[in-house]
Amino acid sequence: MRVLSTAVSLAEHDGFLQPAMRSMELFAGLTDEQRLKIIYFMKVLEFDAEEIVITQGDEEGGDFYVIYTGQVVAHTEGLFRGRVMGVLGPGEFFGELALLLDRPRSATVQCVEKTCCFVFSRSDLQSLMERYPAIADTIKQVARERYDKL
Fold it and tell me: What is the pTM of this model?
């Protein structure tokens, strides 16, 4: 994992972050000014192919990930075999269940290819959801659908 950007380097990266966020359904309904405020909360991380981002059962770590480029697969480990929960690509997100339900990670998430994500801490995700109800609604809806599949 490599940190590509933090809020400190906002000015340098605004040229690619704003258009990238504009193209993502999660942030599409926001104004440029609102997206600019959100950039202050996030880090941009890059992961290598095959790298594990989240491990099922982890109680530590409180990050929420929005995929900018690349692809990940979420899978669960079972007694006899695992189960693929989904393959996610640009604009999709993961890590919300553990944060919303305050429980261990429900799946392992591994990069299929080199992947770049916008990352928010637990507290920043809570602030984001409080300030932008449309984002909260989207995240909660996806979380409900994923929880039902567990």
Answer: 0.91
